[in-house]
Fold:
Amino acid sequence: MEGKYYGQKAPPVRENRLNAGDGFAGKCCASLLESGRGGLLTQTCRDFWQGNACQMSLTLMMATTIEKAAIVLHGPVGCGSNMHNLGPAVHKGKKCRGLVPAPLRWLSTNLTEGDIIGGGEAKLMEAILYADREFRPEIIFVVSTCAPSVIGDDADEIVTRAGAGTRARVVLLDCPGFKSRVVASAYDAFYHGLIRYLPLEGGPGAGKKGLGPADGARAVNVFNSTSIGQVDEAEIARLLGELGLRARFYAEYSNAGKFRGLTGAALNVSLCDIHDDYMLGFLWQRFGMPYVMGGMPIGYGGTRGWLESVAGPLGLGREAGEVADREEGRLRATVEPLLAGLRGKRVLSVGGIARVMAVSMALKELGLEPIGFHAYHYDDTAIPLLERTQAELPDLPVAVSSQDFELFGAVRKFGPDLVISHSGTQGLLAKMGVPAIQLYDVDRPCLGYKGLHSLAKRIAFAFANVSFQKRLAAKARFPYNKEWPKHDPYGHIKTT
Amino acid sequence: MESFIESPRFSCALGGAIATVTSLPGVIPIVHAAMGCAGNLNSAVYFGGGYLGDGYCGGGHIPTSAVTESEIVFGGAKRLESEIGNALGLIEGRLFVVLTGCMVEIIGDDALACVKTFRDGGSPVISVSTPSFTGHSYGGYELVLEGIFNDYFPAGRKKAGKLVNLFGLVPGYDPFFRGDLAEMGRLVRALGFSANTFFTPDQDFRNLESAPGAALNVLFSPAWGLGFAKRFEALHGTPYWVTNLPIGAAATDLFLKELGRKLNVSQKKVENLIDDENKNYYGYFLRTADVIAESDYKFYAATVTDSAYAAPLGFFLQEELGWVVTDSFVTEGLSEGQRLAVGSAYGASGLGGRLAFETGASQIAKRIAGYQPKGKRGSVFDERVPFFVLGSALEKSPCLKAKAKHLSVSYPLYDRLIVTAGYAGYRGGLRLLEDVVSSLVSAKA
Ligand code: SF4
Structure:
């Protein structure tokens, strides 16, 4: 079905591949399902927008984690601005995974007026060759941005030509920000680069093991993401270990050698349906590797469902049920007292669509009251989760929004007791006087049973003292005029 | 400027413009570009500027036209118009500034025409062209100043008399811009003048409006803002003075004497101020001198900063601490003319180090590593030990490797929080002293 994209020069964007959109408000998941899968969200826009991330910046987040890689950012000098934030984050991510942290090596092709007129290809070539010589990396990621795309640079051609003479593998990540309003397109852009330019088989341990029983522990590939920290990987490895499975994590924090061993696993496992469908579909088509996408392992039900999805094809269904029973039994006893005084607290969730739904269901399990969510985007990979959430929380109002002014309006209007929200919004929420916690935090467990325990603790801790928020709220000024909170927070979403 | 750059320590013109506008009171940016530019460029200073944070209408609040493929193909003017109209309805501000990104400039969108419609209707909206490919963040700062002070505010305003405008420190890309401006403002006021610092929290939009009536513009930058200051003088009749940002007593004494002459302040008044400030400064400095002398905190040193900080920082290290400055790396891209200007400001400070225009982290790291003892026994003839680098956070790990001391004082600065800190003036000099010595003693367990 999607095979047609894998052979193309440029990766698809999710608007075209998956009916993606980023503006919607409705009374329940079913209404979003109906509009979303019908392609209606691709027709919506806003008459007012606020700045956000782009698919390029998210692609960089993934590429910078790869070991012994250098980055050539092809564009004007500003596009690499969040590198100074990524550097320390990746340093920490490598360190806690036992990898050797090294300073981020990257070049900007620094396109100037002359390049815009005459083309930036020669400069790109020069930068790739310099990076190869100077940094001696295993992989050079060429990240191509808006300007070269608009002026028509053929980065694929340069990368292919340069790659013939470099020691490093040169991988093009073609991800101009203006091509997609949903940053989730970045996942496909990154995976597309791996697929097109890197050998994914033939390394040691890459022999196909298939689904049958093999010697020793069976290896499964588990696909991580930028929002999944090492503590989460450890929890997932622990749970899969209980089933006699050995988890190997891809693609972040991998390296060229590890990629060559990718095919040596019984099964490819996703931790987030939204993140991995492009890659797992490819590995199935190209190498016949089976895969599962069982939602995110968040909450009792979410974790059980995820474990069962992995165990099912491996014939370990009964064992998975036993592990879940045992873990749940143990956890309930510790979690219950934590939230004793907080039952019925009304919680709004904000962030990636898979997480906000998974967290909403977990909140219900914990006895809190989910009152809605803002998902940063919609695309068709969310359909199974939307169906599940609809069944669990049939009256949960939903919005698709990554916009601060809509979040501001919604918080004023619905008055949640707590907001569980994506990073980047915590400052706003604190100044509004609302207790809030991070939707994810790579330093703390968020997945599996450890994650649920941590969620309960973090919620209780948020309510333990709200003085900071209260004091801020008394002093903070917001740029929106006084009338705005009286309006429909989603009133600027329009259908074209 | 022309070649590729390793881990640049600045963003594009749009990035500098966003940092500038979001730090000015009452001024609202409207970014005409793709969705990601505003967010990405904001994060450059949010993190890299010592955790500057978002500001009143920064970060996720920044209105943007968020152009996509269809605007790139068919033009983005309609989208921009709708964005401006809705921003005016939704956001409270005194002045709205449209800033343009690379993709809309390439396709030739006419933001000026768009803005004119609103201006004609009486709305305070201007447009500043900031294509990323024509310059970097320092240039973006200059473009915004030009757009607001020279293009927007009408010429021919009456002189307010005793008022001084302070310019030249680029928000965020100079992580100490607030502390430095506050201290310079304090000293100007101590001479009996009012000071517009624009970017400090005590200011509001009236400070911007009063600027054309000032008696003097002080520009703390040898490389940036000269064209702006000249046009300002031609339009508003305010003379300008380009000078180094003074750090510490030695430099600030000289600065005040010169400023006093420019403003016709009586010598007596200036000298009294200098005396008072020195009494205070050395009251602290002399006691700290004990630990410096006893611990032999004397270093070979290199600085890695933008051009505004290079000479002032070197001067403090050389004159007040008695260190030997080997290298001053200037990290923002500069034209030939700007390099000459920076070079002569450096030379005029009497600095003995080598001034290098270099931004590449690995090139700078190589130079620093080169000062360390080489060979099996660690014996060489030209090693510089002990060594101290005052640079950005990018220098931290190479310094660790080379066993050199390190303090982050320049962009990107993400291993310290900068709130009120600034190194300018007397208070700033003491602050620098405190930070340098603290970084040395903090290793003690
Ligand atoms: S120019 Fe394009 S790629 Fe660069 S930051 Fe802006 S949206 Fe992202």
